[in-house]
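Title: Prediction job returns without error message
Component: structure pipeline
Severity: low
Priority: P3
Assignee: unassigned

Description:
Job completed but the reporter wants confirmation the result is attached to the right record. Sequence as submitted:
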Amino acid sequence: MNNELMVKYETGGQEIQLSQSDVKNFLVSGDANRVTEKEFKLFLELCKFQKLNPFLRDAYLVKFGDKDANIIVGKDFFIKRAYANEKFKKYTAGIIVLKQNGDLENRAGSFYAKQVESLVGAWCKVEFTDGTDFYHTVAFDEYNTGKSTWASKPATMIRKVALVQALREAFPEDYQGLYDSSEMGVNEEVLPSREVGLINNNQRKNLFELAENDKSIVKAIMVKYGYENTSDIKEEDYQSICDDIEKLVSLNKEEPEVIDEAEVEVVEEVEEEEDFLKGTPFEG
């Protein structure tokens, strides 16, 4: 893609390089080819402004047909950002149920007896370090779509709505423009999963820097982990691959040693190195 949109920023101590093609290939659920340039730009700029790391599932785009794309932020990010605020102490969230006797009960968690109780809403209490708190409630009927996750896990969904809304209202400067799927009426089953866990362009570049631009070393470690292309590497394998690349670079720099059979430690070290190289083109 020529002259594609791209942003660079830092979050969580890591430099993020996010391009339009990254978003299209890995971070869109639905019709990626229908996402407009304006929608790509809004997503990129929001990620940059709010320091979101979409490769860690902080955010993603949902686009179906000619409808406007929705920018969705994961619940875990709302919680993570809250704990990063020095004013935040803790939160408690739960559901509101209508009991058989007509009483309403605010209950922590998301359990209720569907046979004898009705789910009517949810609540969340945010406590601050100065001893004050903020309390928020939401009505079930205003958000329930009756479809997908809302049909199978209604209590979990409405509790999540109360939680993210309470955090956003308690810390409005921290959550500008950020919304969870449960608020936007987006079915969670359609959200990206596998692709979002892939490493980004900056991480791929770092692999070659660690290998001192020796492509054979990067290739060797990729083979060990079962990858053919760096673009397929999963986030969960990234740190281990980096560690193995550094170790292989170090091994290549060592001078050959004459092994004294009496020196057991040296023999054991060589055996460990041979185990490390198994499954790579450097084996044997």
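Comment from assignee: result matches the submitted record. The radius of gyration is 25 Å.
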